[in-house]
Amino acid sequence: KDGKKKDKSNAKSKSKSKVKKGKTKGEEIASDEVSEEVKDMRNKLGVLKSRGSTRDNSRAATARGKDNGIDGGNYPWSPYIVEPSVVPKSKTTNAPLEKLLLDRVYGYSTKHGIKNCHYLNRKEIVYPISSLAVVFQMDSSNQIIYGSSEEEGLGHDNTVTAVAVHPNKKIIASGQAGRPPSIHLWSLADGRALTQIILKQHHSSSHVACLRFSPDGKYLISGGVGSENYIHVYDWADGKTVVQESTGEGKPIDLTWGRAHKSDTFAVISEESHVLYKLDSIGKKSSKDVYKNKNSGVETTSGDFGEEDILYLGNIKGAITAWKNGSVFKNSNVVHSGGLTCLLTEAEFIYTCGEDKTVKKLSSKFDTLSQTTTQDVPISLDLNTRYRKFLVGMRSGYIMQYDTNSTDFNALVIGHGEETWGLVADPTNPEIFVTASDDGKLLVWNIEKEECVSVFTCNEEPTNNAANKRIKRAKKKPKKKVKGEVEVDIPPPTSESKLPYGEQGRALDINIVNGHVSVALNNGEVSIRESTKALGRLVAILNDCESWIPNLKSSPDGSKLVVCCADNHIYIYNSSSPLYPMLTKLPTQSPVYSLDFTTSSEVVRTQTTTQQIFYFSISSSVSSQVEDGPTRFRDESWYSHSCSLIWPAQGLLQAGLLDYMSYMATNLTNRLFSVAIANGEVRLYRCPCPSNAGYKSVFVHVGKVRRVAWNADSLFVMTVGGNDQAVIQWRMG
User: Fold this and answer.
1) In this predicted structure, which of 54-68, 482-496, 709-723 has the lowest mean pLDDT?
2) Do residues 265 and 256 touch, judged by C-beta distance below 8 A?
3) With contact defined as beta carbons under 8 Å apart, do 389 and 401 qualify?
4) pLDDT tens digits for 422-475?
5) Could you give the C-alpha distances from 130 to 38, 479, 728, in angstroms and in order?
6) Which of 470, 463, 420 lies closest to 445, judged by CA?
7) pLDDT of residue 663 exceeding 90
8) Nearest alpha-carbon partner for 26 in 713, 698, 728
9) DSSP state letter for 226
10) Residue 157 predicted with pLDDT over 80
11) Can you tell me the distance from the alpha carbon of 461 to that of 440, in angstroms, rounded to the nearest whole number?
């Protein structure tokens, strides 16, 4: 790798740019209260509250080092940091000249609320992902991103949890998480997304759960959820709050206005009840009526006003209740088996989505007029009846457009529906990278085309060809520990997927020599695929690991695959042999989350979750640990630097980042570090990184950035944000 290709990090970026570039900042929302751990992390990292363009922290690193008591003394990791015999002459502390520019964001947020993807017009839709709101232009596939502007103060600084569109289709409202959460009203101008007004929700709310404009566009309602639940009615053009009221224990899940253009009636819908409000001529509340659900224990999931101001409410049983003048008007039979997820009305019709993966058009008498089967559970619905289209946001992270008069559909947005860990760039093709998720999907992305080009499953079954008849899949579960006489499963951390562990993807690798793609699952299985172009063809299945797999990597010469397992071992396989026989199994004391090879492929170093580093010699038939590895291999040429307990990364350690880095990677010539931070930040450092080193940083992800990778020519960096479901493509600028 060293010397074979020129560093293209400083090369001119492509002239084609489809997105306004920039950054935002975010944090993970795990509960109503911000944890002490998160507060401590912010203080130590010196997280700045202000937003803006890519940040140059050439001077800030020194100040934070002093704040953390870093004075060049001895630390637990000091024995691992051994200076090479010949120290590079250049040890500048300046931030790198390069910076990260947001090039493309993939995915759709499905974790918060319903009715959050909408038509703006026949050719444009808007939807949330991570801390961004995205306008997608269907004809050109361009993105205009609210939150990517380089102008100071624009965009969200936390997860976008709700989106609504003004009746004029020109103003967009997007609400976020935070304390207090905020609501941004913005519009498109000259291909950019520009802020008009920012409104604040009640301080006790942790996020905005739902938003809705009045039919005439004068008012905006918001429903806030948190330690207390509040609704607000804003005269948004004047920036005034005309109604602010607690909803008690009822968490707002949906909002709807009466049908009339100047309707003064709106409903706040929660799981156990709904509340009808009326406004007077100056927008003040004139009346309020609370109605409990008639069927005890049957939670409401969505609702909307229909003709004659009949309020239709769908529930988890898949049925609909119609209310009129404060009483039940009529009930439907079960419309969707498994539950109803979303309900809209248009003219005299009712449109519903359900857990049974269908969208139905009903008459006012609840007769089914038409039915469309969707690829996954629909959770958001919008209609374009003029052009006979409807838009469906799905729990899987997809947004699809369907034709009402045929079975035709288009996948407008493709993404992951659960936490995403797996990320690898094709080392031989600078246009390709692959992601894997707990949702069981394996997605192949094309950087140049800016789209997902193929979809596979993480546990692909062998095909009926001669080679794959020798492949056997074991029925495995994650490693178990014994507590008394009771066996307890050891699940992978943070996995919230309902899929079996044997279907959830966790780590990825691509062999630079034979092109094989290794896919690690959360039950300890590794499947070897033929190539990024043939991910459906299995080469081998490895069943030796007894727990989930944080990482795996092939050697530079393509002869070995090292699998890091949470059972406190690394497994080394012969990747030159057709069925990948295991060569050896070595103990590591605790799980390994990062590893590097020397350019000769004869030595591997591993870093564990307990911040220890181990060196292993794997050149001979008998592999063994090298106790004095930091000293013996200090002058060795390393193929990559993903372990942080090394001399080239000492500046990161002295800046107090050891416990906050979730992953790091170097570019083609090991001259730049891209570092994923646990607070949603991605940093760019020089390599080697001296003490008090400056850096460039960007914020878009919310919560931990799980993986970071450079493409094959180092012109792009890709990141996956774990729980925020975002896959982001950054261009080097």
Assistant:
1) 54-68
2) no
3) yes
4) 999 999 999 999 999 999 999 999 999 999 999 999 988 766 454 555 566 655
5) 18, 33, 10
6) 420
7) yes
8) 698
9) E
10) yes
11) 13
Q: What is the chain's alpha carbon radius of gyration, rounded to the nearest angstrom?
A: 27
Give DSSP secondary structure letters for 136-202. Answer: EETTTTEEEEET--SSTT-S-SS-EEEEEE-TTSSEEEEEEBSSS-EEEEEEEETTEEEEEEEEE--
Place of tokens 């993986």: 707
Dist CA 296 CA 301 (whole Å):
14
Report which secondary-structure segment, H or E, holds 223.
strand 219-226
Summarize pLDDT for 245-260 with one digit per residue, the tens. Answer: 988 888 999 999 998 7
What is the arrangement of strands in the sheet containing 349-354, beginning at the earlier edge strand? 340-346, 349-354, 358-362, 368-373
Distance, CA of 271 to chain centre: 27
Within 13 Å of residue 129, how many CA atoms lie on the same side as its CB?
A: 31
Q: State residue 55 phi and psi, 5-degree precision.
A: -95, 130
Strands (E), 548-695: 551-554, 560-565, 569-574, 582-587, 592-597, 603-608, 613-617, 624-626, 661-666, 672-677, 681-686
CA distance 426 to 514: 12
Cα separation, 612 vs 595, in Å, equals 12
Say how far apart CA 99 and CA 119 lie, in whole Å.
34
Q: List, edge to edge, every strand of the sheet that includes 551-554.
A: 551-554, 560-565, 569-574, 582-587
And the tokens for 29?
């929302």
Closest residue by Cα to residue 270 from 297, 294, 295, 301:
301
Q: Round to whole Å and give the CA distance between 439 and 420.
A: 8
For the ranges 9-23, 35-49, 204-218, 348-362, which has the lowest average pLDDT?
A: 9-23
User: What pTM does this model have?
Assistant: 0.88
What 3-state class would DSSP assign to 674? strand
CA distance 509 to 140: 32
Residue 649 DSSP label? G
Count CB atoms within 10 A of the CB of residue 411: 14
* Dihedral of alpha carbons 26, 206, 414, 137, sign: negative
> Could you tell me which of 236, 107, 145 has the C-alpha nearest to residue 182?
236
Any idea which residue has 């590591």 for tokens?
588
Bond prior to 688 in cis (omega within 30° of 0): yes
What is the distance between the terminal CA atoms of the chain, rounded to a whole angstrom?
23
User: What's the rounded Cα separation, in Å, for the pair 509 and 557?
Assistant: 14
**Tokens representing residue 305 in the block:** 């006003």
Q: 82: Cβ–Cβ under 8 A, 6 or more apart, which residues?
A: 630, 631, 634, 647
- Compute the CA torsion angle 314, 317, 322, 323 (nearest 10 deg): -90
pLDDT number for residue 67? 30
Structural contact between residues 660 and 41, judged by C-beta atoms closer than 8 angstroms: yes
Instruction: Give the pair of three-digit tokens for residue 24.
Output: 């935002």
- Calpha distance 465→469 (Å, rounded): 6
From 522, 394, 502, 452, select the one nearest 110 (Cα to Cα). Answer: 394
Three-state secondary structure call for residue 127? strand
Which DSSP category does 460 fall into? P
Whole-angstrom distance, CA of residue 398 vs CA of residue 414 = 5
